[in-house]
Amino acid sequence: MPHTHHRRPPGRRDKRRPEGHALPHARRKPAKADVHAATPVAQEAVDYLRTQEKTDFADAVNVLIAFATATTPQYGDPALSLHVPVDFRDRVREQATAEGVNLQPIVLEGLKGFLAGEWEPSDPKVSPRGTAGTKANMSVRIPRDLVEQVDAMAEDFARERGWAMDPVHRLNARQVAIQALGRRFGVELEKPERGWETDYQLVMDVPEAFREFVRQAEPTADRDLSIVLRDAYARFLSGEWVPGQPQQAPVGQSVDKVRLTAQVNRKVWEQVKKAGADPEQIAARGYRLVPTQVALAAIVEAYDVPESLLYPWAE
After folding, report:
1. Total structural domains within the chain
2. Contact (Cβ atoms closer than 8 angstroms) between residue 78 and residue 144
3. Which domain holds residue 163?
4. Does the pLDDT at position 63 exceed 80?
5. How many helices (H) and strands (E) does the chain have?
6. Which of 1-5, 45-49, 174-178 has the highest mean pLDDT?
7. Where is the composition biased (Basic residues) (predicted)?
8. Alpha carbons 122 and 176: distance in angstroms, whole number
9. Which residues pair with 136 in a beta bridge?
10. Which among 45, 46, 42, 48 is positioned nearest to 68, based on CA atoms?
11. Is residue 51 part of a domain?
12. CA distance 295 to 269
């Protein structure tokens, strides 16, 4: 049967379509609510892709997440993203499902309880490089002003106790929320040990290029800074290893410095300080050493840092 074209009769002005011509299906444009609802699931997809060693795919999805959330204004309370071990996330979700409860009110109660002094979080120890295991994200919607209040109080709380204050390791609203979930459901957040108690922050003033090199090298190494210094201090104290003599900048020549920090054990640090100033040891090696110089020599060795980055005037 030949195809017949349906044309509107002459003089017909209405906009009705001729019979047999159905309207095309209108595709609904994703609303901002859809974008923000899908973001936590998309982030879980990123975590899964990384476990499957699909790094390129994971990075691509991350780019899309960043673009979608940046171009879609947030509505209501923002999502507080909690980066936790997969086992912790699964056990918390299992307990919440068994009890028929939602995570948001539990986190809210925990944060408000911390502000009211009803409970105290512990120092959020950082897992050594390569021992943290697979991580995943949990997201709960928390009022922005509450997060800001908890962040401020957590910073004061940590400072009073001498805990790490750098942005990566310090106590904050996310850490408080994670510990609140652990307390509520009886799930322990496992913290692999470094092999020594890291109760002291070592501060090293170094050229910025040196610090950037170390920060880029550390994630690809088998050991984080704390492990490197633990092993180096032990080798130094046993006499197995002696750092070379530190170089001094020429008179009148200065280099702009920035801070590089690492968590160490205070007692071991004191032993290194004492050994570095011991008259007999100074006579044997020909120069005095302080814990920071021992640490920098260990970092240069462990991460294969060009010495010209530590001593730029020696080029």
Report:
1. 2
2. yes
3. 76-185
4. no
5. 12, 4
6. 174-178
7. 1-15
8. 9
9. 84
10. 42
11. no
12. 10
